[in-house]
Write a structure and sequence with these properties.
The chain is of the alpha+beta class. The chain has a single domain, classed as 2-Layer Sandwich (Alpha-Beta Plaits), CATH 3.30.70. It has seven helices and four strands; from the N terminus they run βααβααβααβα. A four-stranded antiparallel β-sheet has the order 2-3-1-4, with helices on both faces. Helix 3 packs across helix 4. The structure holds adenosine-3',5'-cyclic-monophosphate (CMP). The site of adenosine-3',5'-cyclic-monophosphate has 8 residues, from loops.
């Protein structure tokens, strides 16, 4: 039975800065995920703090919010079969040094902070994160 889902993907400042946007988008497309919406934006630290508020008790929260607001990002709605999980598999582990071969973070990630991409971790969070950036 088919299970078409949508999920949110962010190409983070480190990857935008290194002109990796098209290469990363092609990985999604080649692996069956459609890019339904895409926009390049530069958010404020307050917006980043709101987006990542689930991490507000973590020691890395302040640096994380500073980082996501430090330069342009590309936010996308990806759609496809089991898109939440499919995107997470394509991204690889949070820390690039633990990410499986040929995943986006393995190929392009620099550090746990500059790990090139974010993806929703559940269907419910995907809905909230899509609403956050696309207000739909
Ligand atoms: P992301 O998937 O965007 O979700 C939260 C981000 O926090 C994560 O990717 C990492 O870039 C960042 N981060 C920094 N330090 C840590 C840590 N110790 N554990 C998890 N995430 C971290």
């Amino acid at each position: 039975m088919s299970n078409t889902e949508q999920t949110l993907s962010i190409i983070k400042p480190d990857a935008v800065e290194r002109n990796l946007v098209e290469e990363i988008k092609n990985i999604f497309i080649k692996n069956g995920l459609k890019i339904k919406e895409s926009k390049k934006i530069h958010i404020t630290k307050d917006e980043a703090s709101e987006f990542y508020k689930v991490h507000q008790s973590k020691p890395f929260y302040n640096d994380l919010c500073s980082y996501l607001s430090s330069g342009p990002i590309v936010v996308m709605i990806l759609e496809g079969e089991n898109a939440v999980l499919a995107n997470r598999k394509l991204m690889g582990a949070t820390n690039p040094k633990d990410a499986e071969a040929d995943t986006i973070r393995n190929l392009f990630g620099i550090s746990i902070d500059k790990n090139s991409v974010h993806g929703s971790d559940s269907k419910n969070n995907a809905k909230q994160e899509i609403e956050f950036f696309f207000k739909i």
